[in-house]
Design a protein that fits this description.
With 697 residues, the chain is α/β, with parallel strands linked by helices. Helices cover 41% and strands 22% of the residues. The strands form seven sheets. It has a seven-stranded mixed β-sheet with strand order 14-13-15-16-12-17-20, sandwiched between helices. A six-stranded antiparallel β-sheet has the order 8-7-6-11-10-9. Strands 23-22-24-25-26 form a five-stranded parallel β-sheet, with helices on both faces. α6 links the parallel β2 and β3.
C-alpha cells in the first residue's frame, strides 16, 4: 500500500492479495461496505484480524464501538454519520474520537470539523461492526425533538408577515410580544444562566443560524435556528436590551432564574451579510471574587500575594480576551479596599465595595489620559488605570507609580515579556520603565477536570490516546482523564483555573532592562530570576490531576514535534501564475521529497483548498496574481475552520516591508522574496512545518 498510489487504499490491498476489484478512488460508504469482506477474504483473514491489520497500517487503534458517549454522538448529525459511516465515541474540548472504516476520507474529515468544531481522532472499525452500532447510537435522535427544538420550529413557522411604513422586515410590538418568541428568548437566556454560560451567541447563517453558549471559555452548540426564527429571536433580545423606562440601556438587563440565581446581561449586535450577530455577556455584578477564589497555587500564588502587598509601583496585568484579567483586577481591587482606591473604567462590570469606581465618559471632551490625570488630584493610595492604549496614559501610570502609589493597569499581550515590550514600543525608555514597574502578571485560563466524572489515567488503557502522545513528548505523567457527565454537560471539565506568569522586577531585572534587551534575552533573564512560563505552571497543574495536557494544548498551543518523511506529511500546493516560477519552486520541494501540486492562479488555488480533496501540509502563494492575489487567497484560507491552521508561505518580488507586515498580520506563517534561493526556501519550509509540529526527516 502506498499513499502516493492513485488508487484507493483498499483497492491496493486487494491487488496485493491477488484480487482485482472495481473500486473508485473515493468510494462512498455503500461501495466500501460491499468491497470490505471480499478483500478480507482474499487476505485470508477474519473480519477482526483484517481490521486490526488495516489499523496498524494507518497507525491508529481499533475502536470499541460497544461504548460511546451520547454527548459526542450529538456533535455529528445522523445524516453525516451515515454518509461517511462514522460513529463519534468520545470528545474533549478540541478533539472528537471517531470510529471509521475509511480514515483516509478527507471529505469526512472536513465535514466532521465543520459540524463539531473539533479535530477528528480516527479509530478503525469494520463496516460490519459499524452498521449496528450506528443504529443503536442514533435511534434516540429519531425520537420527538426536545422542547427547545420544538419551540424554535414554532417560532420559525408562525404565520404572520410584518410590514411597517419603514419597510418590510421591521418588527412591531405585536410580533415582539408573540408568546412563542417571548418563550424562546426566555429559555435561551435562562438556560444559559443555569448552564453557567458567560456568553450567549446568536449567530446567523445563510441556511441556518445557531445558538451557542460559552461555558468555561469554550463555545458549546445549543440549537440550530432557521433564518426566520433567528430574526425574531434577535429582535426580541434587542427589545429587552433597550431597558425599562428610567433605566440606562448601557447598564444591561436582568435575567432572573430564581430569587437566588440571576445575572446581568449586556448585548452587542453586529450586522453581517446573513443577518445580525448577537453576543450577550452574562455576569453577576455583585459577585466579586477574592484572590483565593481565583485558584492560584504554588510559587505563583506566593508571588502574587507579595506583589499586591507592596505599597507602590506599577503592576501590569496582561492577557488576551477571556484570559481572566478582568476577574484578577477586580479581585486585586477588593483586596486593597481598606486603602483609598480609585478605578477608572470604560464600563464597570462588578461593584467592588470600598472602591471608588468611575466610568470614563468621552462626551465630556477629555481623553482617557486627561481624565486619569484629574483623578490624581484626589490623592488615592491605589489607582486602577484601566487598559493602557497610548503613550500619554502609559506616562501618567509610570509617573503615578514613581510618587509612591500603587497602580494597576492592563495591556492585551500574549505573555509577561510581551507586556514590557508593548510599553517600550509605545515610547517608554526601558531604563525608566524599570524604575516604576514592579511586576507583570500574565494570565491564561484552562478548564479544571470535572470532579464527578474524571477517571484515573490508565497507561495501559490510554496509551494510544492523544493525551498519552502529548504527555510523552512533554515529559509529564497525567493523573486523570476527562470523561464527561451531566454535571459538566458532557465536556469532562467544570470551571476554570489560572495559569499565570509572574515577572517581578528585581534589581537584576532592572539591570537587564537597562540594556534594552530583545524579547528572547528578556525571557532568559526573567527565567534566570525565577519566573516560570505558562507551560511549566500548566504541566504542574497536570501533574496534580487538575487538568489535562490536551487542555493545555488547546489554550497554550503546546504542540509535540513528530518526525516524518517529506512524502508522508501531505502534498504541498504551489500557487503562481508564472509557470517558470512554479517549476523552480516545485523542483526544490520535489528534491526535498515532497509531493507537489500546482495551481496556475489564485482562484484555482482557493478552489482546490476549499474542495478539501487533498489534505495539504503547506501552501506557497505568490503575492501578485492576475485573477486573485495571494493576500485574498490567504484571507479565504484563514476564514475557514477546516484550514485555519494550514501553514502558508508568501512568495513575492516586492521588497516593500509594509507587505511583509500586512501579510503576517493577516495570518501568513512566513514571507520570502523572489528570486527564490533554494537553501533559504528549504530552511523556511522546514521551520514552518516544525512550528506546526512536524520535523521533516
Amino acid at each position: 500500500m502506498s499513499e502516493s498510489s492513485p488508487n484507493h487504499w483498499l483497492k491496493d490491498v486487494a491487488a496485493h492479495a491477488g484480487l482485482d476489484i472495481a473500486l473508485p478512488r473515493r468510494p462512498d460508504i455503500a461501495t466500501l461496505r460491499q468491497a470490505w469482506p471480499a478483500v478480507a477474504k482474499a487476505c485470508k483473514l477474519p473480519d477482526a484480524a483484517f481490521t486490526k491489520k488495516v489499523a496498524g497500517y494507518f497507525r491508529i487503534g481499533v475502536a470499541d464501538v460497544g461504548t460511546y458517549d451520547p454527548q459526542a454522538v450529538k456533535l455529528i448529525p445522523e445524516s453525516v454519520a451515515r454518509r461517511y459511516g462514522v460513529l463519534p465515541l468520545s470528545s474533549t474540548g478540541d478533539s472528537l474520537v471517531i470510529a471509521t472504516s475509511d480514515p483516509a476520507n478527507r471529505a469526512a474529515h472536513r465535514d466532521i470539523v465543520a459540524h463539531s468544531s473539533r479535530d477528528p481522532v480516527f479509530m478503525m472499525a469494520s463496516p460490519a461492526v459499524l452498521g449496528p452500532a450506528l443504529e443503536r447510537a442514533y435511534a434516540p435522535a429519531r425520537a420527538p425533538r426536545n422542547a427547545l427544538q420544538t419551540l424554535v420550529a414554532q417560532v420559525a413557522d408562525t404565520d404572520f408577515q410584518v410590514v411597517t411604513n419603514q419597510g418590510q422586515g421591521l418588527f412591531t410590538s405585536f410580533e415582539l410580544e408573540d408568546p412563542a418568541v417571548v418563550k424562546l428568548a426566555d429559555i435561551v437566556l435562562k438556560q444559559g444562566v443555569r448552564y453557567r454560560a458567560t456568553e450567549v451567541h446568536i449567530e446567523p447563517g445563510a441556511e441556518a443560524g445557531r445558538v451557542r453558549y460559552r461555558i468555561d471559555g469554550v463555545l458549546q452548540h445549543v440549537v440550530d435556528l432557521p433564518p426566520t426564527a433567528h430574526d425574531r429571536l434577535v429582535a426580541r433580545l434587542k427589545h429587552l436590551a433597550l431597558g425599562q423606562p428610567g433605566i440606562n440601556p448601557e447598564d444591561g438587563f436582568e435575567v432572573t432564574v430564581s430569587p437566588e440565581l440571576s445575572r446581568r446581561a449586556h448585548l452587542l449586535s453586529t450586522p453581517t451579510p446573513d443577518g445580525e450577530l448577537v453576543s450577550i455577556r452574562l455576569f453577576d455584578p455583585h459577585s466579586v471574587p477574592t484572590i483565593d477564589d481565583l485558584g492560584f497555587s504554588g510559587l505563583e500564588a506566593r508571588k502574587i500575594e507579595q506583589v499586591l502587598s507592596r505599597k507602590e509601583g506599577l503592576v501590569l496585568v496582561t492577557g488576551p480576551a477571556r484570559s481572566g484579567t478582568t476577574s484578577f483586577i477586580y479581585a486585586a481591587l477588593a483586596s486593597l479596599r481598606h486603602e483609598s482606591v480609585i478605578s477608572l473604567e470604560g464600563r464597570p462590570e462588578l461593584v467592588v465595595p470600598g472602591v471608588t469606581q468611575i466610568r470614563y465618559d468621552a462626551s465630556k471632551g477629555l481623553s482617557f489620559a486627561e481624565t486619569l490625570q484629574h483623578l490624581l488630584d484626589r490623592s488615592p493610595d491605589v489607582i486602577h488605570a484601566g487598559e493602557i492604549r497610548d503613550l500619554p496614559t502609559a506616562r501618567i501610570a509610570l509617573r503615578t507609580a514613581v510618587t509612591g502609589r500603587k497602580v494597576l493597569a492592563t495591556v492585551h499581550t500574549s505573555d509577561a515579556v510581551s507586556g514590557i515590550r508593548r510599553l517600550v514600543d509605545m515610547g517608554l525608555a526601558p531604563g525608566r520603565l524599570g524604575e516604576s514597574l514592579h511586576a507583570v502578571v500574565s494570565l491564561r485560563l484552562v478548564r479544571r477536570l470535572c470532579e464527578k466524572c474524571a477517571r484515573p489515567y490508565d497507561p495501559g488503557r490510554d496509551d494510544k490516546s492523544r493525551e498519552a502522545k502529548l504527555a510523552s513528548v512533554l515529559g509529564v505523567s497525567p493523573v486523570k482523564r476527562a470523561v464527561g457527565c451531566k454535571s459538566c454537560a458532557g465536556t469532562g471539565y467544570r470551571n476554570q483555573i489560572p495559569i499565570p506568569e509572574v515577572l517581578v522586577i528585581t534589581p537584576e531585572m532592572k539591570t537587564a532592562l537597562g540594556r534594552n534587551p530583545n524579547d528572547a534575552e528578556l525571557l532568559r533573564a526573567a527565567q534566570a530570576d525565577g519566573m516560570r512560563t505558562f507551560a511549566e505552571v500548566g504541566l504542574e497543574r497536570v501533574a496534580k490531576g487538575e487538568t489535562t495536557v490536551e487542555e493545555l494544548e488547546r489554550v497554550l498551543g503546546v504542540v509535540p514535534v513528530r518526525d516524518e518523511a517529506a512524502d508522508e506529511v501531505g502534498p504541498v500546493l504551489i500557487a503562481d501564475d508564472s509557470a517558470e516560477d512554479r517549476a523552480i519552486v516545485a523542483s526544490i520541494l520535489s528534491g526535498m521529497g515532497f509531493e507537489v501540486v500546482e495551481a496556475p492562479g489564485g482562484q484555482s488555488a482557493k478552489t482546490m483548498v476549499e474542495a478539501g480533496d487533498d489534505a495539504y501540509s503547506l501552501v506557497l502563494l505568490d503575492l501578485y496574481m492576475d485573477d486573485l492575489g495571494g493576500k485574498d487567497v490567504l484571507r479565504a484560507i484563514r476564514q475557514r475552520l477546516t484550514t485555519q491552521a494550514l501553514p502558508v508561505i508568501i512568495l513575492t518580488s516586492s521588497a516593500n516591508p509594509r507587505d511583509e507586515f500586512e501579510l503576517l498580520e493577516a495570518g501568513a506563517d512566513d514571507f520570502l522574496i523572489k528570486p527564490v534561493v533554494p537553501e533559504r526556501l528549504e530552511a523556511r519550509v522546514r521551520a514552518v512545518l516544525r512550528r506546526g509540529g512536524v520535523r521533516v526527516k
